[in-house]
Amino acid sequence: MSESIDIGDRIRIVSLPPYVKTAEPMPMLRPPDVIRIGEEGTVLSREPGDYWSVRMENGAYLLSSQYLEKVDSAD
Fold first, then answer.
1. Among 4, 31, 41, 66, which is most buried by a count of CB atoms within 10 Å?
2. How do the pLDDT tens digits run along the chain, 75 residues long?
3. Whole domain around residue 15: which residue ranges?
4. Name one Pfam family in it (predicted).
5. Whole-prediction pTM value?
6. Total structural domains in the chain?
């Protein structure tokens, strides 16, 4: 990730983690195929340990910044 991410930014998935954790009141581990490489979402909040709560098309997930890139407004 070359640019810093802020709450409200659009992000893109650049690689998939071995599993994803939902950002729900009762989190669940899900297989990585619930999201796709290239899928875009919106950052909801910053979480401890360099994780971000991200709203994707089919739910909200906790994702490490290593799997994300900021989407430029020109894209």
1. 41
2. 446 899 999 999 999 999 999 998 899 999 999 999 999 999 999 999 889 999 999 999 999 999 999 998 765
3. 10-70
4. CRR42-like
5. 0.85
6. 1
